[in-house]
Every structure is written in structure tokens, then in C-alpha cells.
Input
Amino acid sequence: MTFLALLFSLYVLSTAKKVGVDDYVTIAAAEPASGPIYTLTNFTTDKGAKGRFAVVHKPIGNFHIYYPEEAAGKCGGLEFTSRQSLVHSCDFATNGGPFSFHDPTCLGNIVSDGKIIQTGGGGEVIGLTHTKKWILGSVTSRTVPKLDFVQLTSGFNWLTRKGVVMPATGGEIAPRTFAGINKKGELLLFVVDGHEVAPAVGLTLKETAEIALHHGCDYAINLDGGGSSVACSHGKLLSDPTCHDTPSVCERKVTTVTCVTH
Output
């Protein structure tokens, strides 16, 4: 078992009391009549880490979850987020949920453009339904088909819930990828650069949650971070990924990606 798969498994075990139990929130997705589909903002944290986030003002029909596709449409193998952003014409894309470096590479719940690719595993999810609702939280395998998702990916833990920062103080400093929903029902996708080799650069989970809340996300989910964190547009890097967890810039192959189109 790879470290990433082990980490996801340990997270599932640590939340065992929630496994098999639905515990999610439902939020109406934004549907503005006019204005841009999304806006992109660059920022620097108070500790010098560079980041960027997209506010997706019109998520319906423009937000997608994609994955490396094998025979019969199954998720399998690994692919660069930049490559997937090129193939799917993503104006803005980030790495998505947990994965393994070895088969089966795809972990958790995945729905892409209305097709259920797979279900299972723990971890909080973020998804958009055909009824134009955001779903965030724990969703069991038996519930996924009932909620009529059009897009869905698993993540790890809550960052903010009901406007409250969830992680405790301390923890590892690392690059981060995370997603949240604001009071308007807009989607916010964040990527913060860094590396885990000392002196580490990036954010702790608590700092990650605080940034999400600062930008209006009363509800936010942590996605895969560390050497997987990356932001792209039409095949080009918008961030400085560190696939070996060192300061050297290199992109890691992953499975799921978030994608914003127009």
C-alpha cells in the first residue's frame, strides 16, 4: 500500500463511527443571470506561501470532475492534472481527491458529468446534483445514486462547517488543495504552493481552514495536498507543484481533477 492510500485508509479508520452513516449538508448552487463564469485571484499567505483561488460564480454546467479513463469508462491509472486540463478544455483545474500509486489507483466516490464511475471509501465529499444543490460531508455508497449527482469527488476532512474552523492547532505544514462553498452558493477552489522538506512551506490544516473561512466559505473540504497540489489551465501550470515534496518544481500524476469550463 502506498503512503497516500495508507493515509486515506487511516483517515477512514479514524472516522469509523461515521462510516456507513450519511452526514452531509445541502446548499443551493449559485445561478446568477449575468456576470463572469469565474474569477481568479492570486495571493500570498502571511508566511510567504503563494496561492491562487477561483471563485466559480456559475458552477452549473461549468464545474466538472474528471479522471484518467480506462476501458468501459472506468477510472484507472494516473495522469497529470495539466494533461487532463488540456484534454477537457479546463480554464481552471486543480488536482482532486485521494488516490494510490498502484492498482486500484482510484479511491473514494467519483461521479463525472452525471455518470457514476465508482462508489466507496470514507472521507468527506463535495458534489453537485442535477437538482442544482451542493452536497458536502459523508455520503455512503448506497446513498450516492439516490442523490442524483452530476459531479462528485471524495476528499479528506472538513475544514470549515457552519462557519466554524474544524482542525485543531498545529500539524504538518504542506502545500494544500481545498474547496468550499460561500453563502451565495458559489464554489471556491484553492491551491497553495509549498513543500514538505524542512524548512517546510505551505499551510497547516488549521491555517488552511482559516483561509477558506476568510474568503467566505462556511463549508469547506480538504482535498489531496502535498506533492499532488497543482493548479492548471489548458495544459499550462498556474502554480509551482513539488511532486517530490522538495523545493524543486515538478508535477505529480493523480486521478481525479476539478475542472472549470465555459
About this structure: Residues 37-97+158-260 form one domain.
